[in-house]
């Protein structure tokens, strides 16, 4: 099967979107599918991607210009214009690539605009959209858009989503939302939750992981991995630390990743007198993330309410924690119930530092429970959520879309 992967994203270590894309394409390629990836500048025939990446990203002039535009009072409108310009450029690259490689199907991670719809219609091939979240909802949470630009984004998004032949969503709540609110036929929508690289993310000796990560062997560690933005809820995890330290004074909080809230979170830790208790590593190479997870005793996914109320969540970090055989404390949101169902972690009310602290303290005080939850989580992820299993299901959706598209064309013939 020849898949045209229509995407502008560049290599970004420890970015959730980047990890998802490269793991999916790696595994589709391993399964024998021919993939051509459009990165916004050129195309790359894919055999297997190098997913290591450089932790010290260099920002291009294009990206620095975008960052400047985002500081303007009309940043929502600037964001729309920026994405439109990128999409026009992508359309030309996509046309040339499709003309040369004659794809069987086009696959796109959801964004605001939808020029791949034009390419799909011109070359008479089906279009698959992968939806990890609703753009207008994320823009509301981050405050990147005002009322006028939010209305425009919502209208464009509703139009573009309906153009797909099939939609892959990462949570059941997203499927429900697209069907009920966006009026997309239920038969078009398939739920395929996020996964983990179970060969890279696997259990290792805790003390060895701490040694290789230059961490103190005599501490207890809580770990968070992810982009530091408004919906991650890291501020509530930091807010839980004073309560945790009262009962477990050897505890340290590891925050692995970077993002727009980093300085604000550092300031919060200083304000609470936790500067020496909270460790901000910044962005680290993808291959290094399992070391920090394995160096920890408990991992956390403290999403805010707004993130999961409408669409649910399917965080990569959760599967990666579990793959490393670590117990998880997470917000009680749609998409995270599997923690309780598989006895692999503890669910707490979102945005509640006291509840987070209580759950983490409970796990610190019960080593046997931590061990059992870790084993349960690893078993679940290996069986149900490896990237290979995700890729197989995505390939099946693509195959079905191709068959349905051919059948539809045959029905139209006189």
Explain the overall architecture:
By secondary structure, this protein is α/β, with parallel strands linked by helices. Helices cover 49% and strands 14% of the residues. The chain is built from 17 helices and 13 strands. α1 (16-30) crosses α17 and α13 (316-323) crosses α16. Residues 52-73 have low confidence and may be disordered.
Provide a concise account of the structure shown.
This protein is α/β, with parallel strands linked by helices and 414 residues long. The protein has 2 domains: 220 residues, Rossmann fold (3-Layer(aba) Sandwich), CATH 3.40.50.2000; 179 residues, Glycogen Phosphorylase B (Rossmann fold), CATH 3.40.50.2000. 45% of the residues are buried.
Which characteristics define this entry?
Rossmann fold, alpha/beta, 2 domains, 414 residues, 13 strands, 17 helices, 6-stranded parallel beta sheet
How does CATH name the architecture of the largest domain?
A: 3-Layer(aba) Sandwich
Return residue spans where pLDDT drops below 50 for at least 5 consecutive residues.
Answer: 52-73
State the share of residues found in helices, binned by percent.
40-55%
Summarize the biggest pleated sheet.
Answer: 7 strands, mixed
* Strand order, sheet with most strands: 3-2-1-4-5-6-7
Percent strand: 5-15%
CATH superfamily of the largest domain: Glycogen Phosphorylase B
Termini separation comes to: 28 Å
- What count of helical segments does DSSP give? 17
Helix vs. strand class:
alpha/beta
Shape: globular
Integer average pLDDT: 86
Give the total of beta strands.
Answer: 13
The arrangement of helices and strands along the chain is EHEEHHEHEHHEHEHEHEHEHEHHEHEHHH
């Amino acid at each position: 099967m020849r898949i045209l992967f229509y995407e502008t994203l560049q290599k970004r270590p420890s970015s959730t979107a980047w990890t998802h894309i490269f793991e999916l394409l790696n595994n589709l390629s391993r399964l024998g599918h021919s993939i051509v990836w459009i990165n916004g500048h050129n195309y790359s025939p894919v055999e297997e991607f190098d997913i290591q990446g450089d932790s010290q990203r260099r920002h291009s002039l294009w990206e620095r210009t975008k960052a400047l535009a985002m500081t303007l009072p009309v940043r929502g409108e600037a964001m729309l214009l920026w994405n439109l310009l990128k999409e026009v450029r992508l359309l030309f690259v996509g046309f040339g690539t499709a003309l040369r490689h004659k794809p069987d199907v086009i696959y796109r991670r959801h964004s605001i605009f939808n020029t791949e719809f034009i390419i799909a219609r011109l070359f008479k091939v089906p279009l698959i959209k992968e939806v990890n979240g609703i753009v207008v909802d994320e823009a509301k949470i981050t405050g990147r858009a005002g009322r006028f630009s939010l209305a425009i984004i919502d209208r464009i998004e509703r139009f573009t989503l309906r153009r797909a032949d099939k939609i892959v969503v990462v949570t059941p709540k997203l499927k429900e939302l697209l069907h009920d609110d966006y009026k997309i036929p239920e038969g078009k929508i398939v739920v395929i939750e996020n996964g983990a690289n179970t060969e890279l993310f696997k259990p290792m000796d805790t003390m060895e992981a701490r040694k290789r990560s230059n961490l103190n062997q005599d501490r207890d560690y809580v770990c968070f991995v992810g982009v530091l933005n408004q919906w991650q809820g890291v501020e509530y995890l930091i807010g839980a630390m004073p309560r945790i330290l009262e009962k477990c004074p050897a505890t340290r909080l590891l925050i692995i990743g970077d993002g727009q809230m980093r300085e604000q979170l550092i300031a919060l830790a200083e304000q609470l007198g936790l500067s020496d208790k909270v460790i901000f590593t910044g962005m680290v190479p993808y291959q290094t993330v399992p070391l920090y997870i394995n160096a920890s005793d408990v991992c956390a996914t403290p999403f805010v309410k707004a993130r999961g109320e409408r669409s649910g969540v399917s965080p990569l970090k959760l599967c990666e924690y579990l793959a490393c055989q670590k117990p998880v404390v997470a917000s009680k949101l749609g998409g995270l119930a599997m923690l309780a169902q598989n006895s692999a972690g503890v669910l707490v009310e979102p945005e509640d530092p006291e509840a987070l602290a209580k759950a983490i303290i409970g796990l610190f005080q019960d080593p046997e429970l931590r061990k059992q939850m870790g084993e349960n989580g690893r078993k679940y992820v290996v069986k149900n959520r490896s990237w290979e299993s995700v890729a197989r299901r995505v390939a099946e959706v693509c195959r079905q879309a191709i068959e349905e598209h051919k059948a539809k064309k045959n029905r139209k013939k006189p």
